[in-house]
């Protein structure tokens, strides 16, 4: 049975976005002699961020595509997120960002750590002490990365503490330092704050350079940092939103982004589809929805779409958004959401759409992948007073994920060529 609403994830688009990122990162070696010695080492690696079940899209399935696309590392936040990837037979290295204070031999993460697939993050002396205890109790060698806090003031060690932690890691026979990283707080909105953080990190790295192994990756750039300046690429970058095809819509000071044009080449990889399940006519003056938040100013034809805030469609989009309705002629018409968003449904105004062109079963594009459309995810996020990350992460698991594996469906609203999970 086909769901009435689903999330369409365009895997070829994700692969294309990886290629865009590779092009951006290649700027680091622009002008180098092709094939020259050391050229490969200059190319920054990509760490794909798969937090929150791959931004709500299904981390295991998306990670498999990213692995095929050659992404060098994956990042997750919690042990549960790491386990989901290991259980799905993902073999790429996994950086876990959350502090880990214990590990059990029966945990699947023990086996991942034993084969150096799992990399733990050291935030402070407590997490370092925990890593040491784990290695000694389980007889493991642990891959670890040190986070240096230059202004995010969240996780990570202060600049004053980080040097001592680095020395302890290097001196311990069972700890292998595989990376050192920093995290930008305002790369989307502030050139100066981002530069200040990077400069502080550079100064620290320069001071500690003799202790950092040559094969340890140095990284700080998130999606916005990657597009802001090649100076932030270092030896690896951590990207999440860009892989889904979103970035430039949220540049707060776009003129200061070195790779603004490249960001425009990203392909949005997510659509939220549903359908009309009921149509009714109401007279002028009739209220619609909870709280009578909307009244018909004319005789109105309304359509019912079975998505609501239980699915992750924000209440704040009540009377404040549009959806795309697919007409029988293959044309998409954008119609307004009217009344308050309910738990399981929204109502839309179909009055201006020819009655013979839309009806029960007509596909509805709740969130689209056209940047110029009113239902593009970043546009909806701004209207809802939030960010695209949150809207993606709020998508309910009850919405079927349909994975487009080869090419987009040729017919409107079709799901041919997709795999449901």
How would you describe this protein?
The protein is of the alpha/beta class and about 425 residues long. It contains 13 helices and 20 strands. The chain folds into two domains: about 10-265, TIM Barrel, CATH 3.20.20; about 270-370 and about 370-420, Lyase, Ornithine Decarboxylase, Chain A, domain 1 (Beta Barrel). The strands form three sheets. Strands 11-14-17-16-15-18-10-1-19-20 form a ten-stranded mixed β-sheet. The radius of gyration is 24 Å and the shape is elongated.
What is the strand and helix layout of this fold?
Blueprint (H helix, E strand, L loop, with lengths): L5 E5 H15 L13 H4 L2 E5 L1 H5 L3 H10 L4 E4 L2 H9 L6 E3 L11 H7 L3 E5 L2 H14 L3 E6 L11 H13 L3 E7 L9 H18 L8 E3 L3 H6 L7 E4 L20 H4 L6 E6 L2 E5 L4 E2 L5 E2 L4 E6 L16 E5 L5 E7 L7 E4 L13 E5 L9 H8 L3 H6 L6 E5 L13 E3 L1
Parallel strand pairs: 1-19, 2-3, 2-9, 3-4, 4-5, 5-6, 6-7, 7-8
Antiparallel strand pairs: 1-10, 10-18, 11-14, 12-13, 14-17, 15-16, 15-18, 16-17, 19-20
């Amino acid at each position: 049975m086909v769901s009435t609403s689903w999330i369409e994830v365009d895997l070829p688009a994700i692969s294309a976005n990886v290629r865009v990122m590779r092009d951006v990162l290649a700027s680091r070696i622009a002008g180098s002699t092709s094939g020259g010695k050391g050229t490969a080492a200059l190319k920054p690696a990509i760490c794909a961020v798969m937090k929150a079940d791959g931004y709500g899209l299904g981390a295991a399935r998306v990670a498999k595509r990213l692995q095929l696309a050659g992404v060098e590392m994956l990042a997750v936040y919690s042990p549960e997120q790491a386990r989901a990837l290991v259980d799905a037979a993902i073999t790429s290295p996994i950086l876990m960002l959350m502090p880990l204070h214990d590990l059990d031999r029966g945990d699947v993460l023990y086996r991942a750590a034993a084969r150096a697939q799992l990399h733990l993050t050291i935030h402070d002396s407590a997490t370092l002490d925990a890593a040491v205890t784990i290695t000694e109790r389980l007889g493991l060698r642990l891959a670890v990365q040190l986070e240096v806090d230059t202004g995010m003031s969240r996780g990570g060690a202060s600049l004053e503490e980080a040097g001592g932690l680095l020395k302890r890691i290097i001196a311990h026979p069972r700890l292998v330092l595989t990376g050192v990283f920093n995290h930008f707080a305002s790369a989307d909105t502030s050139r100066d704050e981002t530069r200040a953080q990077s400069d502080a990190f550079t100064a620290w790295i320069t001071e500690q350079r003799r202790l950092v192994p040559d094969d340890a990756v140095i990284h700080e750039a998130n999606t916005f940092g990657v597009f802001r300046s090649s100076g932030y690429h270092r030896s690896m970058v951590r990207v999440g939103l860009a892989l889904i095809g979103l970035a430039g819509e949220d540049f707060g000071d776009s003129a200061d982004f070195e790779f603004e044009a490249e960001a425009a080449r990203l392909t949005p990889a997510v659509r939220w589809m549903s359908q009309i399940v009921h149509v009714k006519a109401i007279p002028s003056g009739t209220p619609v929805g909870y709280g009578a938040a909307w009244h018909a100013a004319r005789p109105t034809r309304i359509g019912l779409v079975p998505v609501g805030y239980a699915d992750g469609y924000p209440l704040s989009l009540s009377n404040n958004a549009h959806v795309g309705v697919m007409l029988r002629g293959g044309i998409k018409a954008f119609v307004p959401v009217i009344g308050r968003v309910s738990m399981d449904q929204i109502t839309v105004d179909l009055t201006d759409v020819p009655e013979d062109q839309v009806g029960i079963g007509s596909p509805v594009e709740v969130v689209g992948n056209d940047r110029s459309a009113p239902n593009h995810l970043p546009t909806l996020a701004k209207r809802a007073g939030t960010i695209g990350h949150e809207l993606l992460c709020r998508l309910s698991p009850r919405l079927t994920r349909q994975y487009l594996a080869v090419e987009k469906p040729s017919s409107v609203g079709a799901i041919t060529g997709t795999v449901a999970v």
